[in-house]
Amino acid sequence: xxxxxxxxxxxxxxxxxxxxxxxIDRTELVALDAAINRVLADDFIATMDIPGFNRAxxxxxxxxxxxxxxxxxxxxxxxxxxxxxxxxxxxxxxxMSNECYQISTGAMMPSGADSVMMVEDTERxxxxxxxxxxxxxxxxxxxxxxxxxxxxxxxxxxxxxxAGKIGVLASHGFIKIKVYEKPRIAVLPTGEEVIAAGKKxxxxxxYDINSHTISAVVQDNGGVPVNIxxxxxxxxxxxTTIRQALKNDMVVLSGGSSVxxxxxxxxxxxxxxxxxxxxxxxxxGKPTVFAVIDGKxxxxxxxxxxxxxxxxxxxxxPAIRKMxxxxxxxxxxxxxxLSRRVPGSTGRRQFLTVKVVDGEAVPVFKExxxxxxxxxxxxxxxxxxxxxxxxxxxQVTVVLF
Length: 401
What we know:
Blueprint (H helix, E strand, L loop, with lengths): L9 H10 L7 E5 L12 E2 L9 E2 L3 E4 L13 E9 L13 E5 L11 E4 L3 E4 L2 E4 L9 E2 L10 E3 L7 H8 L5 E5 L3 E6 L4 E2 L10 E2 L2 H11 L3 E4 L7 H11 L4 E5 L10 H5 L4 E5 L3 E2 L5 E5 L2 E6 L3 H19 L9 E6 L3 E2 L5 E9 L2 E4 L8 H4 L3 E5 L5 E2 L4 E6 L1
Parallel strand pairs: 5-6, 13-16, 13-17, 14-15, 17-21, 19-24, 22-25
Antiparallel strand pairs: 1-12, 2-11, 3-10, 4-6, 4-7, 5-9, 8-9, 18-20, 20-21, 22-28, 23-27, 24-25, 24-26, 26-28
């Protein structure tokens, strides 16, 4: 058994990981509707005006504004209706003085008209319309290029594509969009006691939990999980599976990172790659490893499910999102009162899972091996290294998952 060396602080660990994460440069073309939550790989430069023509912003009548001057409630102007145009149609003629076109919202403005009189300010009389209000040039008209002008850089490379930005791309009729590829994250559970779902448990064995929870975190944060399979607790087995995993962009292992007789991960990595830290001043999750092998980041998570998943939220999520070029994810925060007294963990930053009931933060942490410690939680509270005790009723900040 090999004891931990000097533990690294929580903030130092995050900084070390961040320094060794390189955003993906590979790109691919995806269908427009599949581009949501992806990252644009090229500047989008407008090739057309949006709208591409002057259009009515209201239902009413397309007019020459000068023909409305002097109109009022008791002295309406009378204009002859010489045509009609609806959205998607091209006007058939040109408006002359004291003439108008009936027009629908979004329809192309007829030649000669410079304004739209809202239907509410008119009264139709067979083939003519009474105008009860004067308007200025350009009233109720959407101008060509008012939204987007040809040649304009509308979206820059590296922007996160939300629904609004998908709409901008759709305005140009694109079918395919060039985006950055999602990073491929190899997920590698270890342990002779761990077996895959669907197999029969033998005495002393348990089903693999960590590869499924880690894969869920990867998918939820812009990565593609690649399940390598379960590695045994031997140097040969670990080296073989890690070598296979290194074909991907990042490797995430669970188990084998502590200091027991069969916790061989650090021994296997040393001499092959560089171990930047082994052990973090956090609870749960102290036996966390970060290394780089052949230029690929390798993260070793604790084997206990709760420790593994909490550390995935704390360390893995920021790394994947940076690699995927996604913006950082900050959990929503709510204030609550602690439902009971909670001891701190002097010298280690503690992340205590809680649920919120009637405005109170209720701790649900059982022990590091209990996956329900997170399944029953809505988030966690953070207890700094220098806090010995939080009293019942004390105000705490709950970071929601």
